[in-house]
């Protein structure tokens, strides 16, 4: 993957979520969640299945409205932003992203320019250049003329990340961005995300990837944040036993020094 020309990117956004609560059908999914991300910081949301990670991310990018609490972007209540205003600052790579059939990879990627244009505007030279650059960044340039629906799961994921990049976001929200990717592309995508200059909020299941690529982690369990801090502060054998119910050893990675989880067999 090529280096990113961060000078053409929008300034990184500051995210502050305070007391975010979300309930549906009498069930509380989020219960007073506080999460922050400083400009340019990469923050990971980790925790067991059903802990509220994806729902919180949806509250951030606006497909779910919190029952209580506040989500601020650069000090502004995100609830007061229009859909277009929010889309100009937040780009999303969701697990369930749908794309219309019949579109090529280049056309799918170009959809990310929508928030910056009037609905009747055609793609100009700058738009096309941004699309080609983003596809190259995610190692998908050779797929540009392929039908999106013909791609493998990993190839589709890379194209969706390219679409987010051309949106020129200040905040990048990614729900399991390494899902379906092989090991090489998992590492490349997370390395790329860190180099973008954006503020990044990622939902991750792999704790070793989260510890290696995130500046800070928020651990959710039962809709609440039960631990926050640097990977070294958060990823501990005690937390794994308490939150995940698994025995493990946590040791410094021999090269990076980041916490590295060694899972032990269940008795």
TrEMBL record:
<dbReference type="GO" id="GO:0005524">
    <property type="term" value="F:ATP binding"/>
</dbReference>
<dbReference type="InterPro" id="IPR003439">
    <property type="entry name" value="ABC_transporter-like_ATP-bd"/>
</dbReference>
<keyword id="KW-0067">ATP-binding</keyword>
<feature type="domain" description="ABC transporter">
    <location>
        <begin position="15"/>
        <end position="247"/>
    </location>
</feature>
<dbReference type="InterPro" id="IPR017871">
    <property type="entry name" value="ABC_transporter-like_CS"/>
</dbReference>
<dbReference type="InterPro" id="IPR027417">
    <property type="entry name" value="P-loop_NTPase"/>
</dbReference>
<dbReference type="InterPro" id="IPR003593">
    <property type="entry name" value="AAA+_ATPase"/>
</dbReference>
<dbReference type="Pfam" id="PF00005">
    <property type="entry name" value="ABC_tran"/>
</dbReference>
<protein>
    <submittedName>
        <fullName>ABC transporter ATP-binding protein</fullName>
    </submittedName>
</protein>
<keyword id="KW-0547">Nucleotide-binding</keyword>
